[in-house]
Inverse folding.
């Protein structure tokens, strides 16, 4: 058995003369392409389209924000109740919107406070309804289970 022939190596796949030519310190590697745009997959004659990235400029905060004279309701406690007692996911979203309302009330942004307050209230109402449905469904199923197991 010839040990120079290995099962893992394809015959003729690796030529030692190619390896020695690559290790010469004076030779530079060949250029991949003549395109200087930096895109290696451009075809000859293809026009290169470059786009600037989008820049998002946030609204500049006021130096001294003026709180609203008549702040909108925040529903923070209602959101905490629905978070803990009714529906965790909807309660969490309602709490986030109630905190948005609090921030908008403080910064004087009436439109954002109105929208966030309405969304927090709606999410809280839906969370209470979903929580009541789940509680009633759980009680009914438990009584049905008790009826089946007790003769």
């Amino acid at each position: 058995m010839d040990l120079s022939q290995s099962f893992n190596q394809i015959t003729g796949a690796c030529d030692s003369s190619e390896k020695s030519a690559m290790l010469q310190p004076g030779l530079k590697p060949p250029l991949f392409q003549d395109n200087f745009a930096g895109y290696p997959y451009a075809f000859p004659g293809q026009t290169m389209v470059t786009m600037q990235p989008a820049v998002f400029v946030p609204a500049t905060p006021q130096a001294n924000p003026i709180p609203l004279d008549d702040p909108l309701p925040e529903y923070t406690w209602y959101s905490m109740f629905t978070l803990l007692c009714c529906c965790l996911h909807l309660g969490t979203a309602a709490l986030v919107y109630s905190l948005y309302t609090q921030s908008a009330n403080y910064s004087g942004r009436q439109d954002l406070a109105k929208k966030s307050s309405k969304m927090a209230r709606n999410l809280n109402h839906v969370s209470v309804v979903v929580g009541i449905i789940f509680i009633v469904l759980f009680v009914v199923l438990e009584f049905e289970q008790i009826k089946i197991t007790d003769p």
About this structure: The CA atoms of residues 86 and 129 lie 8 Å apart. The two ends are 81 Å apart (CA to CA). The chain has a mean pLDDT of 78. The chain has four helices and no strands.
